[in-house]
Input
Amino acid sequence: MRRIVITRILSMFGVLMLLTLAIFLIQNVLPADPVRAYFGRNATPEQLEAKRQELGYDKPLPVQYVDFLGRLAQLDLGTSLRTRRPVTTDLGDFTPATFELAFASVVIAGVLGVMLGLLGTRRGAGTGAVRLVSVMWSSAPTFFVGLLGILLLYRRLGWLPPGGRTSNTLEATSTGFLFFGRLMRFELAGVWDAVRHLLMPATVLALGPSVAIGRTLRGSLRDILRDDQVRTARVKGLTERAVLVRHGLRNALGPTLSMAGLQIGLLLAGVIVVEVVFSWPGLGQYLDQSIDRADFPAILGVVMVLGASYVVINTIVDLLQLAADPRLRSQR
Amino acid sequence: MTSDSSSRAVKTIATVSDLSVSFDTAHGRVHALRGVTLDLRPGEVLALVGESGSGKSVLSSCLLGLPPESRRTTISGSVLVSGIDMLSGSASQRRTVRRRLLGAVFQDPLTSLDPTMRIGTQLTERGVSAARARRNLSQAGVPEPTQRTRQWPHELSGGLRQRVMLAMALGADGKLPGPGVDAVFDDEGSPVLIVADEPTTALDVSVQAQVLLLFDRLRREHGCALLLVTHDLGVAASIADRIAVLYAGRLCEIGPTRNVLADPRHPYTAGLLHARLELDENAVALPIAGAPPDPLRLPEGCAFAPRCEHATSVCRDSLPELRSGDTGRLFACVNPLGPEAGSITVGAAAVRRAGAKPAADAQPVLTIQEVAKSFRAPGARRDRLHALAGVSLSVPEGGSLAIVGESGCGKTTLLRIACGLLEPDRGSVHWADGLQPQLIFQDAGSSLTPWLTIGTQVAERLRHEGSRRARREAAVELLERVGLDRRAARSLPRQLSGGQRQRAAIARALASSPRLLVCDEPVSALDASLSLRILEMLAEIRDELKVAILMVTHDLAAARHVAEEVLVMYLGRVVEAAPASQLFRNPLHPYTRGLRAASPTREPGRLAPTLQGEPPSAVGEAVGCSFAGRCPDIEPGCRERAQVLEPIGVDTRRQVACQVAVQKAVV
Output
């Protein structure tokens, strides 16, 4: 058991190394020349050459990669061309907002997914309609659902704000963990404000994943509820609820978790569109603006953070699956 | 007479009256049960026998109050367990009956337990204390119950899991109040009825014998009744007080075991009896003519009439009612067999057993020499699991060899090596002309591709046959050879019955003209008549097409029926090798003798003596005879000295790996 956990974690580091290699290679094939970008158009060839030597760009690729790893270890991802600040500083500012949005989204996707999955095990009026609506909303493009949501819930009904993280204009440009910060400080009104701002973007982001999770859960629950083990549980005289929760859901957890892991990866991609639609000051918006300016160091920085999150999340899912299914633990 | 009937009414613990169940399937409406009436008395063992599809499993799940869930299931009649209607009673009442009074054991111990829950939790979930759970485990014959409660189901063998199921069926301590049911609940907290649906079908003979002994002990010690659903009359004979025979959803015959087996009145019961393969040399098995009726198109009259040689027009036109015979027996037949029907000897139609001896100079189609294979043991760092520790065998052209042994003895590993699906660690495998043997699995249904027709699947193996039309024709020919018709060629696997799928799988294997068919438990999940027909067909293929057969089975009677020679394997070694006739007449190795004794016969009330325990773990290096721990004839030297196969007498085919047996044979 311990060996399996250690292997999984080591292999996660292996994948992360591959990620750095990929990013390094992308950096190298990109047409953008960081030295030229540094000097602007009017640099002389001698100046360029001197700077190139100074930054080590004349060394062979493997050596450059080692240098790159060294800088990475010191959290040096270069300087953003647009903001003229170190990319790591920018990432530090924008990541918490995205993290809060993604976190809220994962929670919503999980709750909605389990609800949809449980609903699917019942027969009767309404379940077909629910399935139809859920397929519709999950197949509509995220930006479209987002805009519809703003039109309906903000313009028409005025229930939710159209975007941003907070109504407090002083904090409007603030960075860091706004929701969690307020929660820690027990500012209840502030927490409620943050929740109102989170609700729409997080839900829009969660719709697709929730349907996928729900379908997987429904499928495996249906199979499991036909199994002998469930018949055994019924023979013990357990109530239907106990049969469903203790035996049904418990056994459906494995496949549902792996689907959830995949979906969280997609969700990280969807974050970019949703942040633009809802003017959420996170990595997505930062990336959007960086793409406009061909700000390659910034773009690669965001790719690095999102890629690493994806790898880490899927490792966590793997470990959760070990916890969910004892049979996986005893294999070599 | 009136007083008798009223006292009997009090004494039944379960009453099924006029129960009919039908439900819709993709192909039409199936009438699974058609007016079944029977009762169970306290402490009684009632065996429910019949071919697959006869409705026995539907009946047992109705007793548990869990009828088949399907769109448009219609049920009429009633099932009362201690006065509670298990079909129309309130959900909470039925739950209470299940929790307090009923236990259940199902066919497949691998799927009956929740893989994500520890054994202990699964037991206490029913409302029993941890101490009582441990007591129940040890009563169900589970060694080291305290340790077991902390284990997961996948860490236990099939036999142990089936015992855990039984332990789960045993009761709780003290009375718990329940609506209307506490009155019949006994002080010991034992269940009043255990419903066991093919509880031993997935088990080896020795574990089967152990489980049957256990059922018998529980009945005697706790007085709980048992409804034993089985397709094996031998299992029924060993512990049942009464036998109920079900055919196409109706009772054919019900009565005391002794009477039903000695002189069956219903021709179907007699047919089942004759179809059973026996180890006894003089017994001749005869399959029942025809096939079970299509559940979608049941005949108007007696459903057995089309297969019955005594059938008259009366039989075909009206449903026979149950009528009473002697000593509490009921049967539904207008032309019942007279007494002595159970012992009729069959003349010309007698089925041929093991075929002609292959010529002495026949070249072997498969030669395996000293193969060994070990796997990394789960959970262990350095120790290896020795699945095979040096096994040699050869199958002559057109000959047949059976390998018998308990699960875990290495049979399956050997088969996979024989077919080239697995590389041995050492030793050699040689096929005549380099032709790879064809493998036939136990569950042939799942080895067929579900979305291709049978004809296509056979034809795609006939690449050398030239045109597409020629291939089609050749495929039909092959299917006819195994007893399937042209229609089967156009069917999808799911449209065929289990027996037909097994035939289709054999036809597909024959398509590549193999010299050797390798069969893994080809009949262990089939009922008596069907398995007899499949075995017969294999023998026919061997004799007519000169295709040799290598068969693995834990059913000694099946091995005797097909094979000329038999190898007995134990823990990765051959412990005895002999011509089939000699092996079963005079088994030498104590393990072979144990297996033979553990095989059920149709003698009423004969509980087979059983080998103690289960095979030890094959992990690590073994010292001495691996059977020593279970051997009744153990001598001081056995634990130190490794046993090697030695020939006995002049016939070199007769070999045994037991010093004690060799000495006895010489003396």
Q: What stands out?
A: The interface with chain A takes residues 61, 64, 66, 91, 95-100, 102-104, 106, 108, 111-117, 125-127, 152, 154-155, 165, 168, 376, 378-379 of chain B (CB under 8 Å). DSSP finds 23 helices and 23 strands in chain B. Residues 13-240 of chain B form a domain with the Rossmann fold fold (CATH 3.40.50.300). The radius of gyration of chain B is 26 Å.
